[in-house]
Amino acid sequence: MPIIYLSPSTQEWNLYLNGGTEEYYMNLIADAMVPYLRSCGIQYTRNTPNMTAASSIRASNAGRYDLHLALHSNASPESSAGQNRGSEVYYAAGSRNGKRAAEIIANNLKKIYPYPEKVRALTTNYLGEVTKTRAPAVLIEFAYHDNQEDMDWIVNNIQAIAANVVQSLTEYFGIPFILPQQPVVGVVTTQRTSLNIRSKPSITAPIIGQVGRGYRVTVYGTWEDWYVIDSSGVVGYANSRYITL
């Protein structure tokens, strides 16, 4: 199953017009993403507010991640403060997977941002969180927090933004988008053999683990005849016929 490094902004000095900060609101979006990530089977490691962009890059590069995802909001130069609007999704020039992820995210953000023509996927050669990470990387500038309308859009659409971004991740990874549900404990009820845990909800998908009869698993999501489960840290899909809730 895919695993991402989730890196909401640590820039507490970037102030919103309402007195909040970029760090605060980007962490709210990350918080809101977590239930969707779990239900969809996307594992994650997350930075902390006391980190920096540099330490987030180091932490990301110390692991093995399928995507580095940085969450930010934007601000105009002082000479044009408050005059710009739009969402910008950055990827490193030359990164094929970074470009694909950025384009998917931008295309989906167009569905919820009030001015879809102002949503763009752009290359960068200076943003370290996309140019210095080992994993393919995307940095999202959701909107301009020095513009009243853009700031209001972020503040009033935390849940919608979070769901939209995770939906883009599922599209990127080729897995179903599953709405969050309350995690429940299930018991494996196979007859004699162990239950296979697979990387996708298909009997032809690779087996990434097994769990024996009678063992308990945590069920995070449901997709058709499959559950997204966690069995001792192995996250994947298992046939729901063999799990009793």
TrEMBL record:
GO terms for biological process: cell wall organization; peptidoglycan catabolic process. Residues 183-245 form the SH3b domain. Signal peptide: none annotated. One of its GO terms (molecular function) is N-acetylmuramoyl-L-alanine amidase activity. It comes from the Bacteria. CDD domains: MurNAc-LAA. Keywords: Cell wall biogenesis/degradation, Hydrolase. This is N-acetylmuramoyl-L-alanine amidase. It comes from Massiliimalia timonensis. The lineage of its organism: Bacteria, Bacillati, Bacillota, Clostridia, Eubacteriales.
